[in-house]
Prior knowledge:
Helix 2 (65-78) crosses helix 3. The protein contains 7 helices and 16 strands. The two termini are 27 Å apart. The protein is an alpha+beta fold. The longest helix has 14 residues, at 65-78. The chain has helices spanning 37-40, 65-78, 87-100, 175-187, 231-243, 255-259, 291-304, and strands at residues 17-20, 23-26, 44-46, 49-53, 60-63, 107-114, 132-139, 150-158, 192-196, 209-214, 217-220, 247-250, 263-268, 272-279, 282-283, 315-318. It has 2 domains: 3-139, Aminotransferase class 4, branched-chain amino acid transferase, N-terminal domain (D-amino Acid Aminotransferase, Chain A, domain 1), CATH 3.30.470.10; 150-304, D-amino Acid Aminotransferase, Chain A, domain 2 (Alpha-Beta Barrel). The chain is 24% helix and 26% strand. The protein is globular and about 55 Å long. The relative contact order is 0.15. 4'-deoxy-4'-aminopyridoxal-5'-phosphate is lined by residues 48, 178, 204, 207-209, 227-228, 230-233, 268-269.
Amino acid sequence: MAASAFPLFPAGAIPAHLWLDGAFVPWHDATVHVTAMGAGAGVAVFEGIRAYGSGDGEALNVFRLHEHLERLLDSMTMMRMPLHHSADDLAAATIELLRRNEARGDTYIRPVAYYSGLEHNSFGDTLGAPPSLLIWNRPTGTQLLTERGKHVSISSWTRIADNQMPPRIKAMSNYQNNRLAQLDARVSGYDDTIMLTATGKVAEAPGACVFLVRRGEVITPSVTSGILESITRDAIIRLCRERLGLTVIEREVDRTELYVADEIFCCGTAAEVTPVLSVDRIAARAGGMGPVTRQLDRLYHDVVRRIDEGYAEWRTEVERA
Length: 321
Ligand code: PMP
């Protein structure tokens, strides 16, 4: 297949391999039949992970690899997918994949557990069946230190709930809720959106968690507010408390608290630290990127790139092949 069939990859940058069910497989050989449950019916759970180049450009560090793989196994457990690899096995496979693919700069890593077999005719057939496990990587960009912010709406689409489509599970199918909300916001002229729970409390953005700063306190919806248990959210909470000496409160958040916040930002593996400039066209009071957001943007950048040597347990270094 021609390189142009993969527009996310710079010319010639398609990785040589991906990891599939315990083996390193040539990229172009990894195919799934369209009628398989994992492809045709969205029976899949996944992770999104980043690796960052170090400050000196010499090393690549995967950010919180173990936590992401543990969350993948949690998603599998909640979806009744039998586990046949440990987080340690998958971490070793990820590192070896990045080495083999000679990943150098900032890299996105995508583990997926899905049903690829054609023997599953109905959802019930998958009970007790081991899913396929896939890990692939590609180059990615970063928005850290760019100060690029977003104007967001409050979505009229309600966030899914734990007793319907649990947001704690990183299931592919959940993301149709996020997609409806995001596309609706774009059509209405916003960059992105924030979804509310069925009881009208702030949940999260389609691919990121939400924080606000008000009267010197940092506030974020709790993990029972219709959110994914975000690994970046956890890192940001720790950086706020341990490095900035700020009070962080995890609780239910009202929509109108966003209207009177000094600062609002989103965070996530892909979103990193993204300033939110306005909500429903009401500008955050700091005007532009606020001081707490700016400090977190810098801190997060320095930690993920190991410019700041702290939090070593968050980084897994990929040694060159
Ligand atoms: N919420 C949703 C819905 C997401 O898809 C993501 C991205 N995985 C996040 C929050 C942020 O989670 P994390 O920090 O673990 O990437």
